[in-house]
Fold:
Amino acid sequence: MKKVLILLFIITSLMIFSTTTIRVISSDDFAAFRQEAIKRFEELYPDIKVELLSVGYNQLYQKIITTLAVDPSAFDVIDVDCIWTPEFATLGLLEPVDNRLTEDMKNNILESAMNIMRYNGKTYGLPMFNDVLFFYYNEDLLKKAGIRRPPATWDEFVAFSKILQDKGLVKYGSVWGWAQAEGLICYYTLLLGSFGGQYFDENENPVFNTGGGLKALEWMVDSIYNYKVVDPSSINSDDRAMLHAIANGDAAFGFNWSFAWQIFNDPDQSSQVDKIKVALVPTGVPGIVSNTSSGSMGLAITKGSKNKEAAWKFISFLASREEQRRQSIEYGAMPIWEDLYNDKEILTHHPEFSEMVNQLYYVTDRPSLVKYQEFSRILQIYIQKALTRQMTPKEALDKAAEEVNKLLGK
Amino acid sequence: MHKRKKIIGLYIAGILVAIFILMPIYWMFVSSISPKIELLSKPPHWFPKNPTLQNFKKLIWGGTGTSGEIPDFKRALLNSTIVALITTTISLLLSIPAGYVLSRKFQKFKQIYLNIIVTARMFPEIALVLSMYLIVSRLKIINTWWALIFVYTSFILPYSIWIMYGYFLTIPKELDEAAYIDGAGIWKSFLKVDLPLALPGFSTVAIFSFLMCWDEFLYALILTFNMKAKTITVVVSEFTTRHMIDYGLMMAGGLVATIPPMLIALLLQKYIISGLTVGAVKG
Amino acid sequence: MRKTNYFHLLMIIPATVVLLLTLFYPIVNTIIISFFDKKLFYPSFSTFVGLSNYKEILSNEEFWSAFKITIYFTIVSVFLEFVIGLFTAILLNQNFKLRGFLRTLVILPWAIPTVVNGVLWQWIFDSNYGSLNGLLYQLGLIHNYVNWLGKPFMALNMVIIADVWKNCWFFTIVLLGALQTIPKNYYDAAKVDGAGFWNRLFNVTLPLLRPAIVVSLVLRTSEAFKVFDIIYIMTKGGPANGTQVLSYYVYHTSFEAMQLGKGAALSTIIAIIILLIALVYIKSLMREEVEINA
Structure:
């Protein structure tokens, strides 16, 4: 009897002290930061182990979907891009977290950041950063060309690029990531908004083939073939591959996410350390100050997870003020907490911060659709047809609008 | 005179072929040992001024970049090697007896059998990804060596059976019949007479199976998630999808991934040539 | 000994069982799924739809575009590979000093993993820092760097170049092996008749190589028709779907759009096309009855 009791004691204590392992799949944009954060997390909660799988952004969607389709408990925490929330929620992949949110979270996390994880009145996770496409420019090159400030309009953008090119400072003023991938839609959204366009009207009919949407694509095509200020390799570079030209000082202007700031300032990867600054994205029409596209992502608990408690601990740890502050200072991300935007430590360590914050006021979101993936692919293909001059911008967008109508059952 | 012209022509043609083959390989090598500044210069540096082994060091000892840790290359090499070795062993163990029996027995049935397996291989790899994915997930071996071994065996076994069948055909039946009559027994005559004679066949099967496994990408991409099972081809491909492609590192990785198959190809040339030609020449 | 006994059955059963499990079951499964409206996310909800997946695919513009691109890729790459491979084989069958060295050399590209070949050529073709632009510029052949992978049709041709560089040597190895079996006196007889190089090629060499040519063409054509890896690495089907081949379209349909039924139907269509190609080759090129040893 005594032996049995001892055995029972050993088993129960093993059960108590045994560790839970949570499996997290995330995009590798902030992978280095997350790997460090996991070490801190595991110190804080010795009974939880975190297994992080980081994959390139362009593979993330496919990996999450195919894996969870077969085994819903394969991941405990998944990285959700703002455009996936409606679809993932509809498919029943995500666990609502409304009753786990603290008062502090409800009151002090930026509303715009929180919105990316909401669908149909429910909250499905916590945002991890407040990201948009920022306008990066090479101050050093502008100075050499005798230009005193970054361009504020697209006309200036073209004119300045030409000056830089004529002086032989760069081959092309700017480089973009317009390859057939999600990044293309982000760039298009940035331009669409800055030309005063919209994706859908109030009756949910596609209108991107008229007005600002059309002007945006026309500008893209012209900038390559008429003004010749955009590196044609933009057609087959995605939003990661284009970083080379900026980090190497071969282009003066580029638009990219917040993680790029850290790359530009890493001597191991960039020859332009401390030369790249941030300004407001130029505008296309009077009355619009600036516009960019949002690209925030957040972490969510899967419905099939067997370790929801541990998963929530992990997510809220990464969302905590302390980790968010680190992520801003070391990796250039915009924090999710409203009060961190006045944080002295961040401001002193990360001088671009005050410029970057301004951009957050001028944002257009990509459409929120359950069938977003199909919508995006249609648009990607037709924009690319215009960029490769197989169709005129008008033809391409008309055709895209027609297919989007079909997709949405109109 | 005519003969000399011909010889000169042969040399020119030969040198052109050599340049065509060697240029890209040379560029891969130069890129892998060039520092980043030289790599991103215009026009390119054809001869590195300050060659560095930095990229290879990073591959072997690891390091961190913005996209997190550089993938554990040693682990990927291990994964590829083990998957290739186990698959090769299984294919050999299964195809030797099958090839032998088909070359000796089942005269009517054998042609149908062989034709069916060749026809089945017409199904493109991509066509079976779906079913394989579902099977492997149900077997709960996804993201393990066994998932890849399962799939690769299905690719390689039909070829192996064909090759082994071809080799056993070249061994006269009279030999093992003689041994059998001498009282050696079926099992013994197979082991003592046929197996040793078919040895070149094993080598061919083994080499091809190893090379095919090493080269495979599509299934490895879909069936593996992390370094537990990711093979070398997947890791190399990821250099292009992670942000800021580091071409030097990518070329160093490519070179390392190429060394094993290249060594095999160079050292075991004879078997490869005979393996590729055996079917074709015999016709 | 003449009688089939348990020993023989025992030897063939393991391989057969493994083949049934790992190869035939997935094939049958794929064909069955192709008749269902099956979405990846609703494995239990699948409705029998008969041939409607097939109808939908065959009336889909994207399918026909991928079909044309695949046909172009297959014909051009296999043709170039065959021609380069054949002439190199004839060259290496001549008696000169470089021969041994070259015979070893041709195996090198063939041994490079396909994925590595893809990243290598992607780097060579890089529009800003790639060596092709650098070389052509230094030779004065171009005045501006060309964006090799930026236009749909050009990108397709560049991928073909990368594929040819790796795979043409397969023909060299196979045809050289076959050439060496041709007795020398065949040629001597032709030479005495005063036949020139082309004459000998078409009248002596090619007819004698026919079996080897057919087998190697069937193999390479079906491989080229299934091309996926190099497209995935170099272009991901872009720009503007200009390099989206059938295999890539299957990948997209099944694993990105998650329409398993349609993906399976597409797969079956591809398999049928490859079978047809093989049959056509064998019928038209193999006039005598020859058995194929792949």
About this structure: The first strand of chain A starts at residue 20 and ends at 27. Chain A touches chain C at residues 61-62, 65-66, 69-70, 91, 171, 179-181, 231-233, 235-236, 244-245, 250, 373-374, 377, 381, 384-385, 387-388, 390 (CB under 8 Å). The mean pLDDT of chain A is 91.
